[in-house]
Design a protein that fits this description.
About 40% of the residues lie in helices and about 25% in strands. The protein has nine helices and eight strands. It is globular and about 55 Å long.
């Protein structure tokens, strides 16, 4: 099964392809969850850390009255995003917009990558107009469930944690979002959970959009022999129709008074 080849998605184009698949598989449920936490159907919005823009473009199609912009620091993915929506380059630690500029500010799988998520959350909240919404979608590695557990899988999860630790970030951001929103001064905080599981999306898709990032991160620090054993075990896991995996995305919205 090719989904676990080491380095398969190392190239930027390969990562864009993986993100496109990820957005397509779970877009409908994420959009429904965003609606449930109170994002507006109209107005001006921006996605912070927009990547190649697949999610923002899909959200804009589902809400024609919502004019969306993208924002990211990475020049390569911004070039991709600009094929789909207007996008601006910059640093989320110092967002170059006036207070109360947007009806919606949101991010997806972004705050896990910043070293000071509360500062960035407050910067994002600063941009929200009274009555507007700040929303985020993020996962927590702690919610990952795998059955049966493949041999040496602990090497993969430890390598993933080390990857985030060396960058001063965390892959357990999802369940921290409600507290983060509270400390950023938001009100009417609502939470929805989106469970991504291998029975619903299929084992190959689960491997590609959920497990590939674990392998990418672990490849950096894991002992090679144990890593290769873990990769082989995951390949066997992915071929077994009795295998099951699931992870939870948390969708959180808060509002400005």
């Amino acid at each position: 099964m090719g989904h676990y080849r080491v380095g398969e998605f190392d190239a930027p184009a390969g990562e864009v392809a993986r993100l496109a698949a990820q957005a397509e598989v779970i877009a409908g449920r994420e959009q429904a969850a965003l609606g449930a936490v109170g994002i507006p159907a109209n107005g001006l919005g921006i996605e912070i850390g927009c990547g190649p823009g697949f999610v923002a473009a899909g959200l804009a199609r589902s809400r024609p009255g919502l004019r969306l912009f993208g924002f990211d620091i990475d020049a390569y993915v911004l070039a991709e995003a600009r094929k789909r929506l207007p996008a601006i380059r910059g640093d989320a630690n110092h967002l170059p917009f006036a207070d109360a500029s947007f009806d919606l500010v949101y991010s997806r799988l972004f705050l896990r990558h910043v070293s000071d998520p509360l500062h960035v959350a407050r910067e994002m909240a600063r941009l929200v107009r009274p009555g507007g919404c700040l929303a985020a979608i993020d996962g927590s590695d702690a919610s990952l469930l795998i059955d049966p557990v493949p041999a040496e899988f602990a090497v993969i999860t430890a390598g993933r944690r080390a990857w985030f630790d060396t960058r001063g970030a965390t892959a357990d951001m999802g369940h921290k979002l409600p507290g983060l929103w509270q400390n950023a001064g938001l009100n009417d905080i609502r939470v929805q959970a989106v469970v991504v599981d291998s029975r619903t999306i299929g084992l190959p898709a689960f491997a590609e959009i959920v497990l590939t990032p674990f392998l990418q991160a672990a490849a950096e620090s894991a002992e090679r022999a144990r890593y290769e054993t873990a990769v082989s075990a995951l390949q066997a896991w992915g071929r077994d129709p009795a295998s099951f995996g699931a992870i939870t995305l948390f969708v959180v919205g808060g509002h400005k008074s």
